[in-house]
Amino acid sequence: MYAYKLDNNPYPSSPTPTEKDAKILGGNKHKEAKSAILECLKELNEKVRGRDSGDNDFRTITVIQDVGSGKTHLALHIKNLKGRYNSECSFVDLSMISPKTMPSIYNAIIKGFDNDFFVQLRIKFLEYIKERAEQGDVSAKKALDYRFVNKLTGLTIKQKADDIICGKQSVSVENLKEFLVHKFNYYESTFIKNVITNSFESISNLEELLGMISAISKLTQRFLGKITLLEIDEFDGNKDSIEFVKGIINAHLPACVLLLISTPSGYAEIQNINPSVFDRLEKANYKIDLAGSNSIDELAEIIVEYIKHNDKHGKFGAKEEEELCQKIHLLYEEFPEFRNVRSIINILYHAMEKSSDLELEKIDANVIDDAIKQTYPGLRVKGSIMDVPISDFMTIRKNCDECSNEKELKEAVYNLTNFAHMMGNICKLEKQNMPLDVIYQDPFGAKIGIAVVTNLDKSSSLDEISNISKSAVVDKLVILTNQNIPSPSHATIVKVDKSKMVDLIYFNNKYNRKKIVESDNQRAELLARTLSII
Amino acid sequence: MIEEILQKIESAGVIGIKKADLKKTCGKDCEEIIERLQKEEKVFIEKKGVAYFVWTADNYLLHLTENDPKFKLMLNMFAGISNSISRLKEQTHALRQEMEDLNRHGYTEESVDFETEFNKRLCESGTAVGWAPFSKIREKVCQTTNLSKEKFYTLATDLIEKHRERYEISSGGPEGVVVRGLVHGYVRNV
Fold this sequence. Notes:
Chain A has helices spanning about 30-50, 70-80, 100-110, 115-135, 140-145, 150, 155-165, 175-185, 185-195, 205-225, 240-250, 265-275, 275-280, 295-310, 320-335, 340-355, 365-375, 390-400, 405-420, 460-470, 500-510, 520-530; strands spanning about 60-65, 85-95, 225-235, 255-260, 285-290, 425-430, 440, 445-455, 475-480, 490-495. By secondary structure, chain A is α/β, with parallel strands linked by helices. Chain A folds into four domains: about 25-115 and about 205-290, P-loop containing nucleotide triphosphate hydrolases (Rossmann fold), CATH 3.40.50; about 120-195, no CATH class; about 295-380, no CATH class; about 405-530, Trna Endonuclease, Chain: A, domain 1 (3-Layer(aba) Sandwich). Chain A has a five-stranded parallel β-sheet with strand order 2-3-4-1-5, with helices on both faces. In chain A, β6 (about 425-430) and β7 (about 440) form a beta hairpin. In chain B, a hairpin with a 2-residue loop joins β2 (about 45-50) and β3 (about 50-55).
């Protein structure tokens, strides 16, 4: 059992999406992109309904976005969609074709369709031949290999066709060719024969490739009443790929939508290598914009969607969602590594696995910490001096956001100077009744005063502190603050940003629990120096 | 015993106490203690006429100030120097403050200018989907602002990090900002 009582790990583990993973689509941007693609399919479908498709029935869609932003996931999701507005889809990953010759690309397009597509087409083609045969077309009867003997034995044309459909009998290939050649063009005849015999011939050049794809889309529309969607992934500056895409666009394939997926870098390559193709892509009918697909809100929505989709026991409520989103927000803010869908999903996958091993009810900070250690062993919290573990960082940062914890920070500074005193870096002095937090003598004998100011409204003593800097009570005054305060004369202002605050509080927690180990000594000293405490 | 002797010397004030009087009160053994205190610079001894007088450090200082014109002169000179140093410190601090303010102001102005220029060039250089190579933007921005390539990328990195919701970057390309160890050579407005 996984966290939130899930039966399975909801997150995919593969570095690139599979068709199975792509069944779930989360995130507003991705959903909007999906709607735009479906809208294009719907529009073309309505346009060609009830008539033969022509030159104007071709559409181009481009999806240009950075790696790991969910482009392939979106394309596979569309391919898997049942209500895909009467379309048949072939998904081709150009990165998996080498060398990118026309025969290999054609082969990939054929393999990119679902098997069911060919099964349906085969039935339709055979039914068409059957109908012609029943109407008395001799060449159709020959194509079905329906002979006089069949008739004598009482076998009807329908039964013969049904036997061929279910594989009990086969067509006469030679007669089929003869039948088709009078009714269809060369490429259509070849494709129908290939589908019926379930044996696809190879092609040798771009002209044949375009002819075959044109035949596929035309026959799909005529026999299945569907349009064809060609999804071409990893399109880049490869010359053969560009030649193929240029040919497809120029061929105006009937009742066909070409969806091209690339990265901005691939798109720039195309621009440099073939301005003519680039110009065609720039004028694409639909430019799917996944802008903001790596924003924090989008990532959080995607992550939540995976859990919700698998939450059969209803254990993932609003509270759990909020808690998980808080953790995702922190990871996103602090680690540029996790600012894309692929990386964050990877972490969540491992965190889920650990939650199952440890029988946890939810994904907590420790489990995320472990997952990060396992998958990104060298990853450290940005700017952390104390080498704060990510789980502690998440907890402390959360509290830092909730309120500016002046008391805790003052205590941390107090303890850090105690520590420096013990280490012999400074000599702590009595602060008496002064509005300072710490007074010490540095190794040169100078008297240093430290004041912590985190809340300007509360810190009515800021004026008093400022006055100290004017007097000779201390030789040097250091004001530690997370606010923008005017610098009093003779005082050094040290800005305590969130990462330093986390470091201080982490040190303080360890100090109070007497958990400071030898390896912390140097770090604590460095922290004290960074904050001008010593 | 030491405390008692020190207290007696202290209570004698600026005038000091005769060593002989101390011996009378505290016994001959005090001779050794006084010598030790003298070595530790806790007390000072000076011959006045035929008698030896003993003072604590603070009282001896006051005694010298009142009775030794040379010392008085030197002390005044030192006070003058000390005042000058303090004034100098104050002035340095004020100057530093002024410089920091100027720098801060200058940096803000520079950032604002850079942002405007960057956005302008981004709009000019983008494709239909909005992506633009950093190299193109950099060329144009550096030409008009005289920024170095390094400075451009420092400012561009700051700008993008500061407004993550406004810009989107993409990996690849010959030059760009480095994120996660990867060159991100393309940028666009979200």
